[in-house]
Structures are given as structure tokens and as C-alpha cells.
User: Which sequence fits this backbone?
């Protein structure tokens, strides 16, 4: 396992973070809590110490399952959870107000069965709450011992100037990034430069398309979000481009005797040497497979080949605009 110290903190974590979105058990196809728990046990046995979740994943179910899976290993790991996506009365709003931070935090602590959260992350910038109020509330919760540190997620370039005065106070910043999603790369790099945050990537496997198990005829059941066109990686020309990336992944995977998923994760680690990939996982088998990304490197030629095939699909497409509008 590779480990890395998070900027602006005394937290050292595995350079592999288990993603908890599928663990919410909602809109990711058929899932089973026992499978997630086995995946968490495998992660712990293999040295994974970093877990990402959010209050909104399965409306709290992901946090509950994580707590159950960790059991008495709570103190051995770093939990990162997010707040601000507030669901109620049939509506979803982004709310980073101090009142909601306090309420959301207490609910997350309860579901996670813990008295502190290592990293409490602003899921989206709400464009309403003054940044100084968000930071002051997070600092108050830190002083109270309910959180150890805080982080950012999905901060757009236009929102960055509001964050910059708090440089050094935020620890991580996550953006979508993978071989099939490069449109946030500038923001990911900018955050690190201007905020000194440790970059983290979500959608590291393109929601699964980079694992090589899907083809042009892929179709998902009603209860799987990837069925919807907004999940552009599985639709139209973007899917065809992704399958071209997969062809390159397969060749490189064979050279190293690992899976496409492991190479896709390794690409992130070698291309962005200070970043930590977050990977959504549904089973112990997927966990073992993805951990084969650790402790080796792509050759410069392989890195270059992957980067080139990845960039071929990055023109500003209609689908990209559709996706951006969803946020
Ligand atoms: N900050 C944010 O706004 C934000 C947004 C989204 C996600 N995230 C975080 O980032 C994490 C990662 O993103 P993600 O979960 O959306 O997508 P992802 O990591 O790109 O893809 C995860 C999916 O890939 C498939 N998979 C994983 N490993 C596999 C393997 N070895 N072999 C075959 N299939 C495999 C699984 O689905 P199937 O088996 O069904 O194909 C899994 O659910 C999330 O879980 C969440 O913690 C954060």
C-alpha cells in the first residue's frame, strides 16, 4: 500500500480511498449490504485507511453501512464525509448555512456511530452562504472536537476566489477526473496551486466504464442511474470514445498482469503524483482487483499513450454541456 500525508494536516492516509456512493444502495443497480461490508473488511486487511462518503448517499445509508463495516476499527481509519446536499419535502437544495452544518453534522456523527469526523467536506458551493460563515462554523465544530479537518468538493473556477482567503484551512479538494473525464483537470490543479489542498479524484473509473466489462450494447436496469443520458460515459459517441480508451487499457493491463481498472487508477496516480483516487466499489472482488493499482508505475510511454487516447475524446461535446447543467 502507498501512503501520503494530506496537506495542511497531520493525517496520513492510504493513497487509495474507498468511495461510498454505491454503498448508499440507491440507484446503482442491485446491491447488497453484506457485499459492501466484505469489501470494507478486505480494504482494512489490505491496509486501506481512507474512506469517502456523504450524508446524501442513499440518504445516510452509505454512512450507516460504513460504520457497520468498520466496526471497532473506527480509530484506525480516516473518514471523509460531505454535507450541504439537503433533501426534504420532495426537493433537493444546496445548503451550507451554519444552522444546517450543525444539524447535518450531528446526523452524520450518529449514523457513522462516532464522536468525530476526520474530514468534513463542503459537497458543493451553495452561492448563498457567505464563505466566512461556512469557515467560521467549521472552525467552531473543529474547536468542539466534532471534526478534525475540513475539505472542499466540486469548486468551480468562478468560485475559487471566494475560497482563496481560507488557504491553508482546507485539507482536500475533490473533482471528477479520470481517463474519460478531463474537463475538471484545470480546476483540480488550480485548487492545489491556490488553496494548497490535496487533490482527490471522483469517478476515477468513469462510473465503471473504464473497467473494460462494458461494451457498445451496454444497458442498465431501471434502478441504475447510469441508464440516464446525463451519465454521458455510457451513451452515444462518448461511450464509443471510452471503449477506445479501454482498448489501450487492455493492452497495458496485459503487460502488467493486472486489470483495466487497476491501470485506470494507476494512470491517475502517476499522472497526478500528489492526488488520491476515490473509487466506488461494490464487492470484495472489486476491492482486491482495484488494489492491484498500488506499488508499481506505468512507463513514460504507457502514460503518454493513455494520456493521448484520453484527450482525443475531450472536445466540448453537447453531452458535456448536459452534464455540467446537471450541477
Ligand atoms: N464529490 C462529489 O460530488 C462526488 C461525486 C461522485 C462520486 N464521489 C465519490 O467518488 C467515488 C467514486 O466515484 P463513483 O463511485 O461515482 O464512480 P467510479 O469509482 O468511477 O466507478 C465505480 C463503479 O465501477 C464499478 N467497479 C469498480 N471497481 C470495479 C472492478 N474492479 N471491476 C469491475 N467493476 C468495477 C462498480 O459498478 P458496477 O459493478 O455496477 O459497474 C462501481 O460502483 C464515489 O463512490 C464517491 O465516494 C464524489
Assistant:
Amino acid at each position: 500500500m502507498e501512503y501520503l500525508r494530506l496537506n495542511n494536516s497531520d493525517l496520513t492516509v492510504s493513497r487509495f480511498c474507498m468511495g461510498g456512493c454505491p454503498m448508499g444502495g440507491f440507484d446503482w443497480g442491485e446491491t447488497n449490504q453484506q457485499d459492501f461490508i466484505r469489501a470494507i473488511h478486505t480494504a482494512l486487511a489490505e491496509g486501506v485507511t481512507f474512506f469517502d462518503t456523504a450524508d446524501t448517499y442513499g440518504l445516510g445509508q452509505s454512512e450507516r453501512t460504513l460504520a457497520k463495516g468498520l466496526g471497532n476499527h473506527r480509530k484506525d481509519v480516516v473518514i471523509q464525509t460531505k454535507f450541504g446536499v439537503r433533501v426534504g419535502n420532495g426537493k433537493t437544495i444546496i445548503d451550507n448555512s451554519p444552522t444546517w452544518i450543525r444539524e447535518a453534522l450531528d446526523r452524520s456523527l450518529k449514523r457513522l456511530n462516532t464522536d468525530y469526523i476526520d474530514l468534513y467536506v463542503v459537497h458543493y458551493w451553495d452561492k448563498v452562504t457567505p464563505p466566512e460563515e461556512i469557515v467560521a462554523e467549521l472552525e467552531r465544530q473543529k474547536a468542539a472536537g466534532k471534526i478534525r479537518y475540513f475539505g472542499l468538493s466540486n469548486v468551480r473556477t468562478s468560485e475559487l476566489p471566494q475560497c482563496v482567503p481560507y488557504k491553508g484551512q482546507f485539507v482536500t479538494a475533490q473533482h471528477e477526473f479520470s481517463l474519460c473525464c478531463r474537463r475538471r483537470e484545470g480546476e483540480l490543479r488550480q485548487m492545489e496551486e491556490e488553496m494548497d489542498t490535496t487533490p482527490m479524484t471522483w469517478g476515477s473509473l468513469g462510473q465503471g466504464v473504464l473497467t473494460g466489462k462494458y461494451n457498445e450494447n451496454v444497458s442498465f436496469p431501471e434502478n441504475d442511474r447510469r441508464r440516464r443520458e446525463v451519465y454521458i460515459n455510457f451513451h452515444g459517441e462518448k461511450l464509443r470514445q471510452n471503449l477506445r480508451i479501454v482498448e489501450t487499457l487492455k493492452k497495458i493491463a496485459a503487460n502488467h498482469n493486472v486489470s483495466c481498472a487497476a491501470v485506470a487508477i494507476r494512470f491517475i496516480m502517476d499522472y497526478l503524483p500528489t492526488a488520491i483516487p476515490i473509487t466506488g466499489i461494490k464487492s470484495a472482488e472489486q476491492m482486491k482487483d482495484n488494489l492491484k493499482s498500488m506499488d508499481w508505475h506505468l512507463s513514460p510511454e504507457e502514460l503518454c499513450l493513455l494520456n493521448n487516447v484520453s484527450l482525443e475524446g475531450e472536445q466540448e461535446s453537447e453531452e458535456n454541456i448536459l452534464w455540467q447543467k446537471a450541477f
